[in-house]
Amino acid sequence: MSEYMQVDRALFDQVMVPNYAPAPMIPVRGQGSRVWDQQGREYIDFAGGIAVNALGHCHPALVSALKHQADQLWHLSNVMTNEPALRLAKKLTDATFAEKVYFANSGAEANEAALKLARRWALENFGAQKQQIISFGKSFHGRTFFTVTVGGQSSYSDGFGPKPAAIDHAEYNNLDSLKALMSDNTCAVILEPLQGEGGIIPADPAFLRGVRTLCDQHNALMIYDEVQTGVGRTGKLYAYMHSDVTPDILTTAKSLGGGFPVGAMLTSTAIASHLKVGTHGSTYGGNPLACAVAEAALDTINTPEVLNGVLQRDQLFRRELAAINEQYQLFSEVRGQGMLLGAVLNDQFKGRSREFFLAAADQGLLALVAGPDVIRFAPSLVIPEQDIVEGMQRFAKAVAQVLNQH
């Protein structure tokens, strides 16, 4: 019966809580790096569901894994374990610094687990006074009350009553500002190795080394939020692999499931031991469907061909953006790494990223913003090169459209 219900964008305003303002069109089908709306109009996808659809839409490996698992076993609860979860955990620990994995449903849940674990680790090893968590301005770690307070954007966390305590924010890429806040009462420092929502801002390698040193000096855990940067997005399986700095805890989601909701927290055996039986949990975390799809995504992405291909596509994106910039003088720089890039609007166009985002959709291109001054691109890691070129042609038309309107 439900398949025959006629739905349109107006229905959203009738039945959905108004915390989102979705586009006027409704996509109904996706294949690779293209999607089609209800009217059959085609779009090239440079948004990737906000860095989630790492293998595009309906990738055969993911579809096959989901269909196979759907015929086997969907859900058990964590009173029992399951084979897909165990296989995925083994592959994640084999491929990273980590020895133990906790599964959740999202990046926010993975971060929630990481922060709770850090507090518990500090309490049991050092005492109740060691509870301070330090994050950075412009950071984003999720929308639960704990993670949104830890995130560095007060516009997201204000207006919900008293916030969780003992959380401070330093300035990203400024070691002195972190040093000023840290003490032996700091239990953890959490950061994105490349800030996503905050404007696609890469961490300076010297800054990361400095954070690691300060954490070691003060017996604090270093937590990497790799929800957006993880699983091939930057051209390595995880962004920490670009440097000589290894975190104590790493969180991952988004690309991990290629579009199926799944998140994970990775850490060492010693740290993990503080989440004893009953201290934390999730009804759906590690369910067989999610883990089967994530395993297929990980197997597909964690290959030299795909990871090297991400860096080749990075270069093609930059070449195309440079050509557009030569014509229109829009951007002061292009930041980021791999298939997580931010074109930063110059002073003349500051505050207008949303206009370009909307014009792009008019021209058949799905893009993103990262704040008012940055146009963000987070497409499939395997987007065909001809889709990049054609998508950039559409973006050039969008730029012309915005400039002609003014």
Automatic annotation (TrEMBL):
Record's cofactor remark: Binds 1 pyridoxal phosphate per subunit.
Pathway info: Amino-acid biosynthesis; L-arginine biosynthesis; N(2)-acetyl-L-ornithine from L-glutamate: step 4/4
PROSITE patterns, per database record: AA_TRANSFER_CLASS_3
Major subcellular site: cytoplasm
CDD domains membership: OAT_like
Binding, N(2)-acetyl-L-ornithine: 143, 282
Subunit structure: Homodimer.
Name of the molecule in the record: Acetylornithine aminotransferase
